[in-house]
Amino acid sequence: MKRKWQLITIVLVLTAAVVAVIVVEFTSTLPGRRPSNPFAYDIEEFRSVDPGLIKWKEARQVSIDTGDPRAIAYYNGKIFLAAGNELQVIGSDWSRLQRKTMPAEPSCIAVADQGWIVVAMGNRLAVLDSELEILAESDLPEIEINITSVAIHNNNIYAADATGRMVLVFNSELQQVDEFRGESGVSEVHGFIVPGGHFSLAVNPENELWITNPGIHSLQNYTPSGRLRRYIQRTSFGIEGFSGCCNPVHFTFLDDGRFVTSEKGIIRIKVMSESGETESVIAPPEAFAGGTRAPAVAVDDQGNVLALDFDRKMIRIFEPI
Amino acid sequence: MERKKTKSRREFLVSSVRFGMVLALGGVGGLALKSATKDQWVWQIDPFKCSWCGRCATHCVLNPSAVKCVHAYELCGYCDLCGGYLIPGHSDRSTAAENQLCPTAAIERKFIEEPYYEYKINEDLCIGCAKCAEGCSAFGNGSLHLQIMHHICVNCNECAIARVCPSDAIIRVRGSEPYLMKGDFTADGE
Amino acid sequence: MDINNNIKIAKRTAVVAGTFCLFISLLLLLNFIQMKSADPLESEVLETLVQRLSMEPGNEQLKEEIRQFDLMARKAYFTSLWQVRTGGYLLLFAAVILVTSLRIYHSLISKIEKPEQDEEPDDFTARTLARRWILSGTAILIFLALLAAFTLTDPIEAYIASVEDTEEPESEVERIEITDAETRTEEPEEEEVVVVEEIAEHTTPEPVAEEPEVPSFPGESTIKENHNALRGPFGKGIVYHNDLPTEWNGESGQNILWKVPVPLHAFSSPVIWDNKLFITGADENQRKVFCFDRHTGDLLWEATADNIAGSPDTPPRTTPDTGLGAPSSTTDGNAVYSIFGTGDIIALDMEGNRIWAKNLGVPDNHYGHSSSLISHEEKLFVQYDDLNRGRIVCLNVLTGEIIWDITRDSGISWASPILAGVNGNYQLIVKGNPIVAGYDIETGRELWTVSAMAGEVGPSPAFGGGLVYAANEYAAMVAVNPVSGEVVWEDNYYLPEVSSPVYGNGYLFIATTYAVVACMDAETGEHHWEFDTEDIFYSSPVVAGNLLFVTDISGNTYIFETDSEPNLIAKNILGEQVYTTPAFAAGRIYIRGEENLYCIGN
Amino acid sequence: MKLIPLITVILLIYTAALPEDVLAQQRFPAPEFESGYELPDVVTPEPRALANEYADVFLLASFLLFTSWLVIKKRSRKWILWLSVFALLYFGFIRNGCICSVGSLQNMTLSLSDPVYAVSYTVIAFFMLPLIFSLAYGRVFCASACPLGVIQDLVIIRPAKVPLWVQKSLGMFPFVYLALAILYAATGTDFIICRYDPFVGIFRMGAEFHLVILGISFLLIGMFVGRPYCRFVCPYGALLKVTSLFSKRHLSITPAQCIKCRLCEDSCPFGAIEKPTPDKLVSKIKQRSGRFMLYAAVIPLLMLAFGLAFSSSHIFLARAHPDVYLAHLLINEPEVMQDTENLDVQTFLGSDRTMEELVDSAASIQATFRTGTWLAGAFIGLVAGLFIISQYIVRRRTVFEPNRGDCYSCGRCMEYCPVEK
Question: Which residues span the domain enclosing D335?
């Protein structure tokens, strides 16, 4: 009889153990009740920005109701926007003045002082006049070309080819006149390294041609013939520089020649002095929560920064405080 | 006599119930056959949904996990400053332990040529914690990512990681295409 | 003596193995606790050391310390893994020995000792107890369920209610929409027509008023002006044009306005919207959609269905009489939708730009997929039967997303769906083997089904005079009331194999593969007449006004009056083989032959 | 686990395009190396070959066939034992206990309830074969093909006799478990049978801690109570029990005429041997035939009561679904959104899903549960009713024979029968 009760006790205890284990396991794996990540990699500290540095505020968001936005440029009171396979011209009152369907999806736009517009579409280029008439159009000879940025400098068109890691130079008839790979005698400055498919160039108010060398987190100034003149290089995980594969992704200039840079990975837009110091932050990473792509940037006549948010399909306007 | 009668009645009842069950079983099987596939199903991680929560390392029924980091080399920038290899705030870009992000030192860094470095995963050491994948996605191209390695995975009927995955990144895929490697599984285009 | 000895051995083995088991379990438990409490890989010590290093980056001694510690930690981790694995095997081994020796021990002593006999309640008491316990168990279960119900209120309902009350918090950021400079006064549809003509004439890129963002869908009257699907509007085989040419000759060129070679062969039929005519073509290597100016025959654009996710590298095997391009496209004026035998489905805008494309899964079809598309507003219907199951998929025309996807109680077929207006709503009428059924276009719910078909079902259903007609060779011809699902009449004398039946002015017409055109009474099924022709029919007959157009595979088009007598108006020769169904527009007939596309008009 | 979304996602990957930025990034060419370095190949080992899966099915079928022969014709406990050891080694330790027939029940359920979820032919075979054999020859699957059953069978050392009433009343639990397992599988919530499969941790030689504890506890219980999981938990066993009750042929204790020597009486560790019916019992039951009618009439009421009770607790049961739980959590405790350590909440907040979508999904799951719990409740009510009225059914039995529902065809009793020798 004693044995029997012993047995019953053992069985009951074990059964209780089984039930307890199941209940504990079940409740501890409910969503929101699960343990946190033991291997947490805290990149939050790199995402947070000293509020004192944020000297810009977001004033407006303009939603783009047509196709996927792809590129933005600003010239003389007008916004040039590539959306879907269209080129659109948008006036200062946010009315759409003109629109034109391009033969392929535009990838980047540049507008020059004469009012002519250069649109790159992957491996093709087109020159349009202010009425959006196509003046010249080119199929570039090699298919292995991916133009990620164009700029107009001294009446020549400079196109950054991210696949070939070189800058192609065309005249206004779209005949290729030159190309260069950014190699120079300076030992620590390598030719263009484009590890992530983002390669950008722009002309500053002093009419200098600046090109990114994103693999080494550098902004480089070249002569029109492709000779390196000077550069700034800032590699850092923090706000003071650029990090990762391919940054900055896009950049442009404020009227006084300071850089506006846009970065991927930890998405942020910031202002850098000509000597490469981070001066202020236009948009901290929180502004792009959930986004994945570095916004394209342009600067308008009032010195506001227009950021093209690809994920949310809108133009976001940041004003200095 | 009466016994026999009840017995035969009973037998008739039993066999008709049995026949009904056979029919029901056949029906269920037939219905299931309609949506059945020849292929087997295996678990795999959709790298585009992965949020690097670290549960692949802690919740797999195997220890160490069947989830390993893989490297899609064609996406890698071969950078010197690798967000998946170096800890933030590293003192220099060397292979020294104090600079390595990987808790088990499973990433091997190899100099190729100026300025390129190769990063290779040592599968035996990798525990699938996703630290490097998170770093690579935050700072780099996202070429380091997690996959379930099928020579290790026991292909549970219900994947213990999938149950706790916060971003539903673990899905069943056909056994004939068991990997969702970045760089080759989105063969779509314009 | 011997037994006692064995008992002793078994007992001792059991004791040793048991102790060993306990010992290993204890070690494993210790290991587990240790790993839980201090994971060597994520040790805080290492973290603080690294943090210190970032303060004093040059400290070589600190670096050395970190390296040492890191090495130790990893060693500890991998050692513990090894311990768990080895411990597990040892434990298993010991457990096997323990169990075996215990079993032997017990089997030996049970022969000596008599197992103690417990007082058992008798059977009847046991049954009573069991009944009571089951009853109390059920009571407890019900009680627990009710307890759970009463202690837990559904937060979802309350939440949904509260969300409806609260408004979105206003953002500080001003939100703007881009507006168009010109304001529109006219209806977009009419405007579109004007614009197209302008561009055709001048080619000045006038600032064009933009299309509405969500395209408006054409109404019934607009659809009737066009030929938007296989067998015309709604796929019924009835077209709404009266001034059609009745005489032509493809060999002499009489009434042939233009004739262009078909760029890529396929068995799909042309569809028309406004000035555009669409056909598809396909072979092993390419799947294409072609758009022609239907007035001039100029090829306006062509688009290739490639680079589609899920599309097979090698297309499925098909027979030459079906191929990969058998299904016809459909269009709603905003876009043209095409499907191919690979399962690729593609939506192109009227300029040939891809809107979306997807693969519905490679069809398992021994001839090749051939069901044509049809759409209604934002829904695109795909009859997607294959050897695995009968299936209908409804896609969103704007995005290609699946709206509904149903499996039907039928097998493979090659027929195409049609839309029938029943009681003010549209029903999707779909054939299959062995069913004819009507589906609610909103949900895909099966509204009625009649099982009357058999074999390989090719002809599409017809609709007219309030009845649905379905016929198939080796099966039957049925007329079904789509409201009640009742079979009104049934016949099995004239049955088509490929060509679909058509309703016209109270008659039902059938073109067979034994070269007979037959006319029946649509209401009763009474046979009116039959007409022997020279060749067999693949192309489906089409009714326009009081005329019936039907083309045999030699390319001869017979035109009859829709009457109870066989009044042959004309027999026109095209001069090449025709497997497709012609498309009709005001004053024009478009026929896709094996080689050429013809425009016929006076 | 959200099975249904998981599976639809696969289809999406096959059909839909990914965001273009992803593509743009993906397509990017690697650097050109001057040193002639070539990109290494990524090693992606193939999963287990399909042929092996079919071999498993074949093996299972052979096991069942062989066991049936051993049970019915050869009547050898020893052979059954050795066969079962082999089954344990193969299906348990080598194949890691996955997939087994017990778990396949859920795959089948999900495939019937979710048209997008596809099962493989192997799974269907694993589900069907034991049931078919059970209809033909009784629970031969439990005897020597099911690794879960075998491992318990092997550790039986000193089987205690479980009182009849305990066995009868606890015997209802597998049906409750079955109803819950089907409910959760059909709603795409979870595969609870797999989740709490006690022996899989042992088969894999290491698993999560709780699974090991579960397994060891069951084995320890199993030393004194024969096959505790099979008898009081296993939901697939519940199905087998029903099919086996109507099996065509079945193991018999004696090869010929029972001589009522009572030698086999205590041989069964599972209490599955029916003794000759005492006349007293028959007369007592006969007196209470009114009760039988009463309880039979009560069954619909029981079904209704259970259906009502269960469906009123559908929200509680639906909380096992991660979507529902997360929605409830976020509504009831909005402060968790500030908890940066809470991975699930943070991942949800960072994802594309909006709160509305989550709440909608949760609401629709709850609606499914409302119907599901009604059905599950009614089923449990029916089973309870049948269990109760079965207490008033008695068959006049003059010999010792196995209870077809409870017998695992292990063959122990055959050893004791003197008629054999």
Answer: 289-389
